[in-house]
Amino acid sequence: MKQKYKIKAIILDMDNTLLDFFGYKIKATKAALRAMQKAGLKIDSKKGYGILFSMYYKYGFESRQIFQKFLEEVTGKVDYRLMAAAMIEYRKARDLALIPYPGIKPTLRKLRKKGIKVIIVSDALNLKAWLRLYTARLENEFDVVITSDMAGGFKSSGKPFKMAVKKLKLKPNQILMVGDSQSRDIIPAKKFGFNTCIAMYGRKHRPEMDVQCLNKFSDILKYV
What we know:
Number of strands: 6
């Protein structure tokens, strides 16, 4: 990465960059399905899991009505006993699985010692972002947290990045954006003139575009 200006701030995506979002989602969803089966739901595990994840892709990974819609789909009605069992076990499994990737906290401390501002820009809603950060014990690690509802749009709209520049009061090429998604993180950040790195440890596939890669979070120290 050729830098004309020294990096003075880092913008971080949250899910699959700081936290293993898909990892915890898989574990928590499987726990919820097992709880419903234990409470009396008759469904094959593989089939049930497939239906649940297809609904996440249809209604969004942040949807609060997944289990309700799932029960309507497979039983034709909402059984609140089954739904309660699912929600309780989902939350238990989520809280156990929602942890930072290796090296996150030590690296954040090193960045602070260097005087680097570190902020989060996430497509999650404000409350959900803070719930995840508190669960992962990262609530005090960032200068600013910007979410989609705060900015009035997702990262792809550019609005959260515009808010970040305003809060940081820096030139775009003094800022490094790190995220796992080309479409939601890298491409819109490049449009603002940010330096960019893609978090390979949070992805399943190599990026199609030419972009600097972080194989582990601590690799970020190479750029500051």
